[in-house]
Amino acid sequence: MEQYAHPEALVTTGWVEDNLGKPGIVVCEVDVDTKAYDEGHVPGAIAWNWTTELCDTVKRDIIPKEKLEKLLGASGIAPQTTVILYGDNNNWFAAWAFWQLKIYGHKDARIMNGGRKKWLEEGREVSKDKPQPKPATYSAKAPDFSIRSYLPDVQQAMKTKGAALVDVRSPAEFTGELLSPPGLPETCQRGGHIPGARSIPWGKACNEDGTFKQAADLKKLYGSEGVTPEKPVIAYCRIGERSSHTWYVLKYLLGYKDVRNYDGSWTEWGNLVGAAIETGPAKS
Amino acid sequence: MRAEEFSERRDRIEGWDVKVTLYRIDQRYHCRVDNVSPGATVSRGDGKTREEAEKTAVDKAKERLGKTKTRQN
To answer: Where would a tag sit more exposed on chain B, N or C end, judged by fewer CB atoms within 10 A?
Structure first.
């Protein structure tokens, strides 16, 4: 872990097993498929449903501050608690939850390297018990939107090239051949990518077992596309969760100072009337 | 209890490359179908046997993947 810029933000499956049940630590599973937890999960882990608990369910937005405070309090999480996040799909929505916890200033959040897949494949113990946490009081900080990009920020970056735009979707989504990953619902009217964006699919940051690649490999991956630490970076995908994963890699594993997640992502840009769109492979 | 009898294979469903993962937890078998690119879960199924779990997941995957259209630019 020491090879990464912020090793304190990542734990191994072994560390989690060794620390299960210790006071001050809450393990939380956040899956794309919210039924996965019910199959069996890390013993003692709670679950958050990203479709209902980690967003504003009326308007399209991240979780409001008051709702986050209620969720964390009900989960037995206080501001000083160590929160270990993991999930399916190599931690897509665990990273989404991590990003939101950081927006609201939670100090000690960590991701379990390899996520649910690695835990299961290693044959570690799982449980079907659903814990009943002792409620805590949580007072969140004012949101820090320096790690979030809104549409005007992205439009500006496209015009001025003041930030590197990183499209983390699959190559077929980037070119416009597909409007969504195969088998998932289409959520936009047009295909393609934001002009000037580089295509660096999220999965290139991971090994086959779901863990993150070595820091040297990650540096090479992003550096070879001109995504370097000196320049601000805006990552986007379709709905903002895959790009949280890349945001985490750039900010916490590589230590880039100014990285933002554009959670409006392609569902916003690809539905805008009159928005500039490029199709086909990235222009060099 | 632990996840046991793990198996993973590549396959093609409705023209799309997928990964089919099967395992057992306790007395239930679980199957997951993921698209290869970008690596998202398309469907899940479970059952008392491997075959039942796989059929449920693959049938759902067929329906969902069959709706995916490619576009020419």
So the answer is: C
Residues 6+ away with beta carbon under 8 Å from A116:
A29, A31, A36, A41, A86, A87, A88
Q: Of A90, A97, A88, which Cα lies nearest the Cα of A51?
A: A97
Q: Tell me, yes or no, whether B72 lies in a domain.
A: no
In terms of phi and psi (left: phi > 0; alpha: psi -120 to 50; beta: otherwise), the region of A154 is alpha
Give the residues across from B30 on adjacent strands: B23, B46
How far apart, in whole angstroms, are the C-alpha atoms of residue B44 and residue B61?
A: 8
Q: Copy the structure tokens of residue A133.
A: 């946490």
Q: Determine the pLDDT at residue A183.
A: 93
Domain count, chain B: 1
Query: Which residue does chain B place closest to A170, by CA atoms?
Result: B38
Reduced to 3 states (helix: H, G, I; strand: E, B; else coil), residue A164 is strand
The verdict on residue B55 lying in a domain is yes
Residue B49 lies in a domain: yes
Containing structural domain, residue B33: 4-66
CB contact under 8 A, B26 and A125: no
Domain presence at residue B45? yes
Closest CB to B3: pick one of A33, A123, A183: A123
pLDDT at residue A143, rounded to an integer: 95
* pTM: predicted TM-score of the whole model, two decimal places: 0.95
Mutate to test the interface with A, among B29, B67, B72 (most CBs of A within 10 A): B67
Interface list for A 88-127 with B (CB within 8 A): 88-90, 92, 120-121, 123-127
Distance between A88 CA and the closest CA of chain B, angstroms: 9
Instruction: List, for residues A215-248, the tens digit of each pLDDT value.
Output: 999 999 999 999 999 999 999 999 999 999 999 9
